[in-house]
Each structure stands twice: as structure tokens, then as C-alpha cells.
Write a structure and sequence with these properties.
The protein is α/β, with parallel strands linked by helices. The chain has one domain: 3-Layer(aba) Sandwich (Rossmann fold), CATH 3.40.50. It is built from twelve helices and eight strands. Helix 4 runs antiparallel to helix 5. The N terminus is likely disordered.
């Protein structure tokens, strides 16, 4: 449920599209970027924590609730476009630079943003971006990619057939393991359902998947915190390994007792790690 602090949903027009966002607090801006099958509500419990010391903004990415959604819209995995949306959003809000805190496919978008707009990033915090291109040349990387493809295939096939209920369940269990969907709260499952069309758009997309490379990571000049869940799939751990190798100024923190969705599964430990990192830079 949304806290009163973030109940006032605002709208900003970016490149002819409407983006919903909530904000709270004062001070240096922190912008929160959600992952797949999510929207600004993913950060509801984090908003009041960050707002104690910062101006915090959580927005919904293109083709995510409550913005216009369609299976013909922008795929969730179009990280390059979502990254440019983030740049345009900051400009529209009059923010020259910000602390960027991002999860999963939102973190993938934040990597593109930070590589292409390094001057706009004060610090970068990314949790397990699905930047699969980093594994292509890594030792054993192709095997990890094949294993992940097989693990995620049931979700993709269900979304291709418009079987949204099955797709949501398979998606949750691919990233979090068996039983993950059933452990999600009613509000979390509603948020997933509200954003199912972005996953359908991803499953049926014909546009090439954007490739985030080690050379692009080397362009990111901001101090970067990379977080992992200790129970996350090997796919995400190996991607983080590569990011740690490639990013110039990076710190890695593993959050115990969590799988891929670290901010949702271990919110207190996550917020403490993030706020401590931001305060130290």
C-alpha cells in the first residue's frame, strides 16, 4: 500500500509521453528506477526512508502502470531507450545530476544512462541488472546464458501466448526460485498483473536487444554500488562479477537472506547499504 507521503501521483511529459512519479523529502535528489513487472509502487516502503535525508523520486518507466501500457509498446528489456527516458525525465524535472538507485531491468537501463550521461550521475546503485551481453565473452559465460535461457523460457512462452497468469508465475519463479509467486503479497501480485503487457511486449519484440559492454561500463565515472542477493541465480552473480571487473569505481555488497528482488526481500538491509554508500560519496 502506498504511504501517505507518496500518495500524490504527479505527471511529467517527456518526449511526448506521460510519465507518472511520486516524490518526497528535500535535499540532493535520489531517483528510484523499478524493474520488470513493477512500477513506482515497488519503492513505496523505501520512499519515506530515503526522504528523511534526500529529495526522492520514484517514477514508472515507459509502458508501465499507471502510464499507458500496451503489448505493442516499448519492451521492458529495451534498456537503451529506458535509459534515454531517464535522462529526459531528469531534464524535464530540472535535475542536473542525481543519485540513481535502480533494480533489475531498471538497473540495466541505468547502466546505459550512466554510460551515456556520466555527468548526470552523482552515485549509481544497481541491483542485479540483466546485462546478459557482459557474459558473452566471459569464461563459461555462454553456458550460463544457455542455462538462464532454459530457466526463463516457460515465462517467455506463456507471455508470447498471452497466458498472463502463467507468465507471471513462471517469471517470478525464474528469478526467485520455486514458490516465489505464492510468497508474494496480494499487492505485489497486483502490481505484476498491472505491468504484464510490458512483459508481453518484451516476449514478442523484434527489435534487437541492446548490448551493454565492458567498454561502456568503463565510461561510468560515478562511484557505483553493485548489490546481489545471496540466493540469486548464477546468471545475476556472474553479471555482477563482470561489472565489478569493468566498472572504474565500484563497491560490491551481497545482501543475505534474499534472492534477485533484494529491495523487496531485504528492504532494511538494502536501504542501510544504499544510504551509507550515498552518504560516503
Amino acid at each position: 500500500m502506498a504511504p501517505a507521503i507518496g500518495a500524490d501521483i504527479k505527471q511529467v511529459s517527456v518526449n511526448g509521453k506521460q510519465f507518472a512519479y511520486v516524490e518526497a523529502g528535500q535535499g540532493d535528489p535520489v531517483v528510484l528506477v523499478h524493474g520488470g513487472l513493477q512500477d513506482y509502487r515497488f519503492w513505496n516502503s523505501h520512499l519515506p526512508v530515503f526522504a528523511k535525508s534526500h529529495r526522492v523520486i520514484a517514477y514508472s518507466r515507459q509502458n508501465h502502470f499507471p502510464n499507458a501500457t500496451s503489448k505493442d509498446g516499448l519492451p521492458d528489456g529495451a534498456a537503451d531507450v529506458h535509459g534515454e527516458d531517464l535522462a529526459a525525465l531528469l531534464a524535464a524535472l530540472g535535475i542536473a545530476s542525481a543519485h540513481i538507485v535502480a533494480h533489475s531491468s531498471g538497473a540495466h537501463a541505468a547502466l546505459f544512462f550512466a554510460a551515456n550521461h556520466p555527468e548526470a550521475v552523482r552515485t549509481l546503485v544497481i541491483n542485479e541488472p540483466p546485462a546478459a551481453a557482459l557474459l558473452a565473452g566471459a569464461p563459461g559465460g555462454n553456458d550460463v546464458l544457455k542455462q538462464w535461457g532454459a530457466r526463463f523460457a516457460p515465462a517467455r512462452q506463456a507471455f508470447e501466448k498471452d497466458d498472463l497468469d502463467a507468465g507471471l508465475r513462471f517469471f517470478a519463479e525464474a528469478v526467485g526460485g520455486p514458490g516465489t509467486y505464492d510468497r508474494r503479497s496480494e499487492s505485489e501480485r497486483k502490481m505484476m498483473a498491472d505491468n504484464a503487457l510490458s512483459a508481453v511486449a518484451d516476449a514478442i519484440a523484434t527489435r534487437p536487444r541492446p548490448m551493454f559492454t565492458c567498454d561502456m561500463a568503463k565510461r561510468i565515472s560515478a562511484p557505483t554500488l553493485v548489490t546481489n542477493g545471496d540466493h540469486s541465480p548464477e546468471f545475476f552473480h556472474r553479471i555482477v562479477d563482470e561489472l565489478v571487473r569493468c566498472l572504474p569505481r565500484r563497491t560490491r555488497v551481497e545482501i543475505s537472506g534474499s534472492s534477485h528482488t533484494v529491495p523487496g526481500e531485504a528492504p532494511q538491509a538494502y536501504d542501510e547499504a544504499v544510504l551509507s554508500f550515498i552518504a560516503s560519496h
